[in-house]
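Question (not urgent): is this output format expected?
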Amino acid sequence: MQANERKTIVSELITLIETGNAHVSLDETINDIPADFRTVIPENLPYSIWQLLEHIRITQWDIVEFCLSPDHKSPKWPDEYWPEKTDSISDEKWEETLEQIKKDRNRFFDLLNNDKTDLYSPLPHGDGQNIFREALLIADHTSYHLGEILVLRRLLKCWK
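Got this back:
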């Protein structure tokens, strides 16, 4: 692969993960959510905004760790990928989760930007996964759950 082609692919992957392209970005999705709405679970729905956001963090962290460390042990599915229901979440914990999402994204972006990272060969410690696939997985998984957060915000009447 030529350097120009690689730079284009990496740039597109990073843009997809950061902005969602045709979807609303993480920052836009969670901007200005009133603290008392973070843990509300609307009738007939299984999760709160908080649980979805924390699930995004846990899953993205797991993907990034899998890519970076052959010794990584993933959490137990599904129990350890979803936080328990809670009546409230502190501003500190909310911000900590957002910061960890951004930190893990940046760790993954560093991996993508490293010219020595092979985007397409299977990872030696996986069962066919490659970095390109994992980048698409982060983008796809995140956009899916951000869409759910937007639906929750609409139901709670706290969206534009």
